[in-house]
Amino acid sequence: MTEIASPHIAHPRIMVLGVQPSTPPFRIVEIDGQMVGAAKTVTDVLETAAAFGITVHDLDDPDVVRWVGGDKFTWTRH
User: Do the beta carbons of residue 59 and residue 42 sit within 8 Å?
Assistant: First the structure.
């Protein structure tokens, strides 16, 4: 049996970048490496994904969504 020495690195289709300062604050959403919109809530992320034909069953699955600079509960700057 052959094992890979390096850990699995997920390359999900959806990436939600860190919180941007604004009123209200927002996070940029990328799909397949392209900026596709801004999200103010986790619902916005789901709606954006659905608009691109992606159904998200688990927002915590790193193979589906990558959260940069926080998680699905991070919507304000600290």
Answer: yes
User: What is the DSSP-derived secondary structure letter of residue 13?
Assistant: S
CA 10 to CA 4: how far, in whole Å? 15
Burial class (CB in 10 A: 0-12, 13-18, 19+), 57: exposed
Distance CA 38, CA 28 (A): 4
Residues 6+ apart with CB under 8 A from 8: none
Tens digits of residue pLDDT in 13-34? 999 999 999 999 999 999 999 9
Question: What is the spatial distance between Cα 45 and Cα 55, in angstroms, rounded to a whole number?
Answer: 11
| pLDDT exceeds 80 at position 9 | no
